[in-house]
Specification:
about 325 residues; alpha/beta; D-Maltodextrin-Binding Protein, domain 2; globular
Length: about 325
């Protein structure tokens, strides 16, 4: 009897294992939902859609992008953290993902424990922009005016990359300014009109306004100059240490997602980023490669949470 019972248990275990393995082997066999916790048309959203378009071709399944912003990206991230870990719900997030714990202490998920990092998709700097009507042409003139006056600056929300990059530069340059947060990337018209003095805008969406003369770019936040704005200096070369920061972009899934799916999605993401057509599009948007394994990206995220938390404390960040 004991032998028969043991045999039945073994059969049940094997059957159970097969039942779980089958969906993994067949993944994906239906559309995938990608939650992007930023507004449509922002720099990050543009990049994510380009990547997902290529991924959907490779995987043979549609990837449906769902923009779910609000509360510093925590609403969208929370939805993914609670989703079934079956590979059919993806979080596409950026640097705001790692600042959220510092300014939203009552989040119902943990950035470092509830997600598995899949792939780092790249990074892109921001440009310090203001209206031509301000009459400021260099970064040095800007800092002098900022120290003498009461400047305001726009961002896509408290804790966003545009907010934190401005704070980094402000601390390095040594001036005060009033933060004017917007929801999403709709702040550029306010800066172009002069109603808000300046902003750090993702280059991907700022370049058209710069080329058309609606905005003036005074500096970029990268370590080296960017190809689309070769005559614009970096904040570092202008003499402001520790002022550089790039918007990083990445892909995550719920932490209990089967490893085979995480690995497949990582491999397909690497393949997509290496495709000539996508690579050319990303480079035209000044999105630089940021190659990491899932394990390396997980470590990067943990380090970012610590660093962003320190910055948040230094500038007293609080949610809207």
């Amino acid at each position: 009897m004991r032998g028969a019972a043991l045999a039945l248990l073994l059969v049940a275990a094997v059957a159970s294992g097969s039942a779980w393995a089958e969906p993994v082997q067949n993944w994906p066999n239906r559309p995938i939902r990608a939650i992007v916790p930023v507004a449509p048309g922002t720099g990050a959203d543009v990049v994510f859609r380009l990547v997902f378009n290529q991924l959907s071709i490779q995987l043979g399944q549609q990837i449906v992008v769902e923009n779910r912003g609000g509360a510093g990206g925590t609403i969208g991230a929370s939805a993914v953290a609670k989703a079934d870990p079956d590979g059919y719900t993806i979080l596409a997030n950026s640097a705001g993902h790692t600042i959220a714990p510092a300014i939203y202490p009552n989040m119902n998920y943990d950035v470092t424990r509830d997600f598995a990092a899949v792939a780092s998709l790249g990074r892109t700097p921001t440009a310090l922009v203001m209206a031509p009507s301000k009459g400021i042409k260099t970064i040095q003139q800007f800092v002098s005016a900022a120290k003498a006056g009461n400047f305001t600056y726009a961002s896509s929300g408290v804790g966003s990359t545009t907010h934190l990059t401005a704070e980094r530069f402000r601390l390095s340059a040594g001036f005060e300014a009033v933060h004017v947060p917007f929801r999403g990337g709709g702040f550029r018209p306010e800066v172009a009109s002069g109603r808000v003095d300046f902003a750090f805008s993702p280059i991907a969406v700022a370049v058209p306004d710069i080329r058309d003369g609606r905005l003036v770019a005074l500096a970029v936040s990268s370590q080296t100059r960017v190809s689309t704005l070769p005559d614009v200096p970096t904040t570092l070369e202008a003499g402001f240490p520790n002022s550089d920061y790039a918007l990083w972009l990445g892909m995550f899934v719920p932490v209990k997602t089967p490893r085979a799916i995480v690995d497949r999605l990582h491999q397909e993401s690497v393949k997509a980023l290496q495709s000539p057509a996508l690579r050319e599009k990303l480079l035209s948007l000044d999105v630089e490669p940021m190659a990491m394994t899932p394990a390396e990206f997980d470590t990067f995220i943990r380090d970012e949470v610590v660093a962003q938390g320190a910055l948040a404390k230094a500038v007293g960040l609080k949610p809207n």
